[in-house]
Structure formats: structure tokens, C-alpha cells
Amino acid sequence: MAASDPLVDAARRARKNAHAAFSKFKVGAALEAADGTIITGCNIENATYGLTVCAERVAMFKALSEGHRRFRRIAVVADTADPTPPCGPCRQILWEFGGDLEVVLANLRTEKGRHRLSALLPLPFDARLLK
Ligand code: THU
Fold first, then answer.
1. CA distances from 54 to 23, 48, 60, 106, 128 (A)
2. Percent of the chain whose pLDDT exceeds 70
3. Whose CA is closest to 119, among 77, 85, 83?
4. Whose CA is nearest to atom 13 of ligand 1?
5. Is the pLDDT of residue 93 over 70?
6. 54 CB near ligand 1 (under 6 Å)
7. Model's pTM, two decimal places?
8. Residue 12 CA, ligand 1 centroid: distance in Å
9. Which of 18, 44, 76, 126 could form a disulfide with 26 if both were Cys (CB 3.0 to 4.6 A apart)?
């Protein structure tokens, strides 16, 4: 059996901090910066629902606020048989700040797939088009 990926393990640990009082759907994310630093996030829900922030964006905004600017991979973990890929808004934010990341999807037990972000967000709008 393949050794577990430390990035996936970090996402599993972060998931335990999720504030998912409304959906009960807890998600953990872990972002690997270019220097190897791992920055984690979990989803944080809110009584108005619409202000909910996904685990992936929490991880990215934490990383940016700590000065990281280049990234290699992100792992996303939920307690589901099917993988939990990043939602549309998260794909946009990950693309803008992380570029063509490797996206590792997993549940609590096993890995469920690896994708390039460019495959999950084809034909993206980004700053290169703001001319
Ligand atoms: N959620 C994430 O944190 N990441 C995803 O990739 C999918 C969805 C959260 C948002 C909300 O708190 C809950 O999961 C249900 O949609």
C-alpha cells in the first residue's frame, strides 16, 4: 500500500476544525507552497449561509496573508465515497493565486484522484485578459 501523502494528512487534520453547523459537510484543505510549507484551511459556515467560505479559499487566503505567493499542490478532503472537487469560485481563486496546481482529492481513508487545475477550469478568465 502506498504511504500516505503528508498533504492529504494535513487536510484530514484541518477538516476536524470545520465549522459546518448548517450543512454538516466538513471539508479540509491543505495547500503546499513552493518552499514546501503546508497551509491548511477548513470550511467556515455562517448563519446567513451565503457568507460561507470553503476550505480551499480559507487555505489560500491564509497562505497569501502569511506572505506565500507560489504554490505546487492542494489537497481537499471530505468524508464521502465520491471525491469533493473545488467549487467554481474556489477554482477561480486557486487559479488566480496558485496557477496550474495539482489538485489531490481524498476522503478519510484513501485518495480519490489527482487533477491539474487547468483541466478543472478550462478557458479561465484572469489578469492576463485585463488589458
Ligand atoms: N465546501 C468546501 O469547503 N469545499 C468544497 O470543495 C465543496 C464545498 C463546503 C461549503 C459548505 O460549507 C459545505 O461544504 C457544503 O457545501
1. 12, 15, 10, 16, 26
2. 98
3. 85
4. 25
5. yes
6. yes
7. 0.97
8. 14
9. 18
